[in-house]
Structure formats: C-alpha cells, structure tokens
Amino acid sequence: MLDSGLIANIRESGLAQGPSGVAERTRALADMGFPTKGKAEYAVLASCFLPSLVPSSMKVFRVLLDHYGIDYSLLPNEHCCGNLVLRQAARDKTGAEMKEADALTAEFLGKNLLQARRIGATKLIAFCVGCDLVYARIRESVPEEILWYPTLLARLFKGGRLEMEMGYYAGCHYHYRTLNRSLPDLGSALEVLSRIDGLRLNHLDNRLCCTRPQQLEALLGTIKSRAVLTPCGGCAMGLQQALGDKSDCRVVMLPEVVWAAISGQPL
Q1: CB-based contacts of 211: which residues, under 8 Å, 6+ apart?
Q2: Domain residues of the chain, as ranges?
Q3: CB-side exposure of 135: number of CA atoms within 13 Å?
C-alpha cells in the first residue's frame, strides 16, 4: 500500500519530509547562493533531501552555473517528484499501485512544470538522480528539455587539469534500472572526467550497491585511494557515512572535481 502520509506531505508542503522540512531546506539553498527569480532559462530542481545531505557539492554546482553564465532559478515551490512513491509501488506485483503512483508523480511533476513555464524556463536541471529517474518517465512527452546535471556539465566543461588519483563509483542505480529499464546519463559524467588532464581513476565495481550492507563492505574493501568520486548524491552520502569521520578517504561529487580542475584550487 502506498504511504498516505508521504503523499499528504508532498501535497501539503511540496516535500517528502512534510512542512517541518521546508524552513531548513529553504535556508540551506539560500546559504548556497541559489536564487529564485521571476524569469530564467533554466529551472534547477534541488530535490527534497540533497540540500541537507550534500550541501558542499550542491554549492559548488551553483558556483559552476555562475562560472558559465547560466541563467537559472529555483522554482518558487518545488514539489517532490514522487520517487519514493514509485519505489513503494514497485513492490506490488499486480501493477495496480504502479498506476496510482504514476498518476501521483504526474500530479507532482505537473506542478513543477507549471512553475517552470511561468518563469519562462525551457530547460530543467535535476541535481538528484532520483529526481532524474522520475522525470525520465515523462521526458519524451513534454516540450521542456530535462537534464541530469552531468549532462549539462558535459556541454559546458571543455577541459582542465587536476593531478590526482581517486576511486570512481558510478553507482548501481538499482531503482533506475528496475523502474525505467535504463540508466541515468553516466556517459556524460565519464566524458567530463576524460577532459581532466592528470586525473587518474580507479573504477570501483558499480554492480555493488552502497545501500546493501554486505555489498557495501565489499565495495569499501576495494578503495585504494584517499578520495572517491561519484556523480550520485545518495551514493556520496552513503559512502561517506560508511567510511566515517576517522577515515582519511574523502568522498566528493562531480561538481567539486570539475571546479578544482578549472580553478586550480586544491580538492
């Protein structure tokens, strides 16, 4: 059965967390410097959870948008995409709950598309791969271009230099594969990384899931460098928590690596 409380939270506040999470999320995004404007070419979809889970990476993404002169804005009242509702529905073998979940996500995404159109945005950028999963299900049926953030970076970033060795974990994207029978645009992430001179990647096994304890333990055992890069915010949070504060290994996301390669600042 779909979580009626979750659905009510999204309808009431826009967030999966409910009204109690609105002020914290708003404050976090403001601290990162994301604007909310009346008109913009790009609408940035910040997601429910990532502003509090990976604030440093999101802030650097904002720095990159400014660096490249992108005309962007947050939505005035972004609604949760409904990813968690879809994941609940996937457990129902009858298919009835999936029909209900698809109708709910269409409702939530419709609210975001309406806001994007009001500010004149023709492109939507999802920072969260979970949001990209849901938007991918409507991507071909709407006039707006909907991008996961590495796709945009691949268009903008022409090259840089970073003398560093790090592990690269693309993520297993279990739910993306299960629900969409496809993967997010991981090719763009690799294309971006291929343009960084001096960067040496040790590719970690992305068949291992960072949310499953035994697989996570096996994944951690393959890390040989002092930094691990992933394009996925959920993976970044999960890996860093698993490594713990005492580990000398740091987990970073794609924006931080790109900015280090452009700016020459240490990562």
Answers
A1: 174, 238
A2: 4-154, 160-263
A3: 30
Cα–Cα separations (whole angstroms), residue 60 to 4, 65, 83, 167, 240: 36, 9, 25, 20, 18
What is the architecture, at CATH level 2, of domain 4-154? 3-Layer(aba) Sandwich (3.40)
Q: Kindly state the tokens that stand for 245.
A: 């504060």
Q: Are 11 and 2 in contact (CB under 8 A)?
A: no
- Can you tell me whether residue 73 is helix, strand or coil? strand
Distance CA 241, CA 65 (A): 28
pLDDT digits (tens, 9 = 90+) for 145-195: 999 999 999 999 999 999 999 999 999 999 999 999 999 999 999 999 999
Neighbours of 119 (CB within 10 A): 18
Taking the C-alpha atoms of residue 48 and residue 232, their distance in angstroms, rounded to an integer, is 15
The structure tokens listed for 253 are: 């996301």
Tokens of 139: 């991507």
238: left (phi over 0), alpha (psi -120 to 50) or beta: alpha
- 265 — phi, psi (to 5°)? -75, 150
C-alpha distance across the termini of the chain, in Å? 45
The answer regarding whether domain 160-263 maps to CATH 1.10.3470 reads no
pLDDT digits (tens, 9 = 90+) for 227-260: 999 999 999 999 999 998 768 899 999 999 999 9
Shared fold status for 4-154 and 160-263: yes
